[in-house]
Specification:
Blueprint: E1 12-15, E2 18-24, E3 37-43, E4 48-53, E5 58-63, E6 68-72, E7 88-90, E8 96-100, E9 105-109, E10 115-119, E11 134-137, E12 144-148, E13 153-157, E14 163-167, E15 180-185, E16 191-195, E17 200-204, E18 210-214, E19 227-232, E20 238-242, E21 247-251, E22 257-261, E23 269-275, E24 278-283, E25 288-293, E26 298-302, E27 317-320, E28 326-331, E29 336-341, E30 346-350, E31 365-368, E32 375-379, E33 384-388, E34 394-398, E35 411-416, E36 422-427, E37 432-437, E38 444-446, E39 459-464, E40 470-474, E41 479-483, E42 489-493, E43 506-512, E44 517-522, E45 527-531, E46 537-541, E47 554-559, E48 565-569, E49 574-580, E50 584-587
Antiparallel strand pairs: 1-50, 2-49, 3-4, 4-5, 5-6, 7-8, 8-9, 9-10, 11-12, 12-13, 13-14, 15-16, 16-17, 17-18, 19-20, 20-21, 21-22, 23-24, 24-25, 25-26, 27-28, 28-29, 29-30, 31-32, 32-33, 33-34, 35-36, 36-37, 37-38, 39-40, 40-41, 41-42, 43-44, 44-45, 45-46, 47-48, 48-49
């Protein structure tokens, strides 16, 4: 992949195409480790429990005692590969149907893990799918009912993948949905749908006629907060994964509340299965499978998170040492900083979960001092900035939660002036930028919530060019704004859209002194965009996908002294690397 960049300024422009070089980050852990499990189904006859290990892009198979047996799938888009799969179901022949969510398809595997067939493609026409989160197979006719999540509907297919019918649209009335995530075919011939965004369960006959609905947002009995799954036992008892309330609710066949399961033990339960006398819960944010008896007692847990070196959990930021020899990655949901050599060799990791010096709570921004190489960390969940030396020892920290000068609410990004004398922080929750000297003194601030010049709606990324101009990504306003060193507004560019020069929630920002370009992570458009010094569009890099040079929600970009681009490909749990190619001279384009 190559791009050509056009600069305004001198008589000729040094514009070099960027080529994909490498991806860093382990995608699959050892058997028994889980990363955001999001689906489960049980075959009691074969004695197997199938767990959809979503962010490891595979299905893991356990015996009924919780011993891992084998796993199927790798990261990708080819047949037999998965990209953030979620739900799974078994048919009468023992075949496994998997909602291959980010690939917008369903894959069917036999008991040996061999793909029998796959169907579905991105789109909103009948038979097409957008991020299907779950599926179920009706025992009465063998048809496959799919929660077509982004299309806000249920689709029905025969076993060969031929579309038969669908129902639903976006809304909150009966037969409408908002991001339905779970679906179950009950023994009584009804279809139960976890209507997640409407915080309710809807019940239908197989043709989509509404039979019942219950629930509303809340934390009381028979109230839900983002229910992600529903399953029905052979006796008609209904189990609902009440996800944001961190519990399972149990209802009788009429929808009458019976009890809660898992309170104080579950963290974001995402999927359920009932078999024999056990309830199996994909305990998503605990990265395990929790097993309960039907009286609600926790009897076992299987799996744990993979914390090996080189394994990321939603990396939010990347920084490069002044000499380019070290690459620092904010491994955000592992509460640590990972350090690599320029060739991707792991060197060290720093930090652990906590609020003491050198500990982190979801660190989301990094910058390396051009003076001494110290690493400035936006310790987002702790509402502070920390400074580490090149050995990873904490040497300085400032900030606390609040809106006063020098306080922060969810700081996202940090950048330093070219001489290292000023530190700039996007204080996102307070909709402003704060700047300090290198020791955290002499604070200044600019910005407030709004849509006008110099105002922000969640400022996210920022970077400083060689002349001291500060470019800030204004995420909620879908634009970037330029300021001078003191925070005086200069100009802006961008608006909501998918065309070149438009943005959909821009995040990370970097400036390259080698070509004078600004590089911006266009987060929800799954691409990088490059611009000249005045905001003239130069090029786009990447697109949505799991392959080389493709992204899923990239949050940050950094540039090494050799011009290499490092991209925190957050939702793919990768760091992607691009390098500058051959020299190409282009005429100047001046913009007023």
């Amino acid at each position: 992949m190559c791009i050509c960049l056009t600069l305004a300024g001198s008589a000729q422009a040094d514009a070099r195409p960027y080529t994909f070089v490498a991806q860093w980050g382990l995608q699959t852990g050892p058997l028994g480790t889980l990363l955001y499990p999001s689906g489960v189904t049980v075959d009691t006859t074969a004695g197997r429990v199938y767990v959809v290990d979503s962010h490891s892009h595979r299905v893991q198979v356990f015996d009924l005692d919780g011993n891992p047996v084998y796993a199927w799938g790798t990261f990708g888009a080819a047949v037999g590969q998965f990209w953030d799969p979620s739900g799974a179901a078994l048919d009468a022949q023992g075949q496994i149907y998997v909602a291959d969510t980010a690939n917008d398809r369903v894959q069917i595997l036999d008991l040996a893990g061999t793909v029998v067939t796959a169907w579905g493609a991105y789109g909103s026409y009948p038979g097409q799918l957008q991020r299907p989160a779950d599926l179920t197979i009706a025992p009465w006719d063998g048809y496959v009912y799919v929660a077509d999540t982004v299309n806000d509907r249920v689709q029905v297919f025969d076993a060969l993948g031929n579309p038969l019918r669908y129902w639903g649209s976006k809304g909150s009335s009966n037969r409408q949905f908002r991001s339905p995530h779970g679906i179950a075919a009950a023994p009584d011939g009804l279809i139960y749908v976890a209507d997640s965004g409407n915080h309710r369960v809807q019940v239908f006959d197989p043709w989509g006629n509404i039979v019942n609905a219950w629930g509303r947002q809340g934390s009381g009995d028979r109230q839900f907060d983002w229910p992600s799954d529903v399953t029905v036992a052979t006796d008609g008892t209904i189990y609902v994964a009440d996800t944001c309330n961190n519990r399972v609710q149990v209802l009788d066949a009429t929808g009458r509340f019976l009890c809660h399961i898992g309170e104080g033990e579950l963290h974001w339960p995402g999927a359920l299965a009932v078999a024999s006398d056990r309830l199996y819960v994909a305990d998503t944010l605990n990265h395990r499978l929790a097993v309960f008896d039907l009286q609600g007692q926790l009897v076992d847990t299987w799996g744990h998170k993979d914390l090996r070196a080189g394994r990321f959990d939603q990396p939010h930021s990347v920084a490069v040492s002044p000499d380019g020899a070290r690459i620092y990655v904010a491994d955000t949901f592992n509460d640590r900083i990972q350090v690599f050599a320029a060739d991707g060799t792991f060197i060290a990791d720093w930090g652990s979960s906590g609020a003491e010096a050198g500990q982190f709570n979801q660190p989301q921004g990094l910058a390396a001092s051009p003076v001494n190489g110290h690493i400035y960390v936006a310790d987002t969940g702790n509402d502070r900035l920390q400074v580490l030396d090149t050995a990873g020892s904490a040497v300085l920290a400032w900030g606390s939660r609040g809106s006063g000068l020098g306080q922060f609410t969810a700081p996202q990004s940090v950048a330093l002036s070219p001489d290292g004398s000023r530190v700039y922080v996007t204080d996102s929750g307070n909709h402003r930028v704060q700047s300090f000297d290198a020791a955290g003194h002499n604070p200044q601030e600019w910005g407030q919530f709004g849509t006008g010049d110099g105002q922000f709606d969640t400022p996210y990324g920022l970077a400083v060019d060689a002349e001291g101009h500060v470019l800030v990504s204004d995420l909620g306003n879908h634009r970037v704004q330029m300021f001078d060193t003191e925070g005086h507004y200069l100009w802006q560019w961008g608006e909501l859209g998918l065309d070149p020069g438009q943005f959909h929630r821009p995040t990370g920002v970097a400036f390259s002194p080698l070509d004078g370009q600004w590089y911006i992570a266009d987060y929800s458009s799954n691409r990088l965009q490059a611009f000249d010094a005045f905001g003239g569009f130069s090029a786009s890099i990447g697109a949505r996908g799991p392959g080389a040079g493709h992204f899923q929600l990239p949050r940050s970009v950094a540039i090494g002294p050799d011009g290499r681009l490092y991209v925190a490909d957050t939702a793919n749990n990768l760091l992607q690397v691009f390098e500058r190619g051959y020299l190409l001279w282009l005429p100047v384009v001046r913009r007023r």
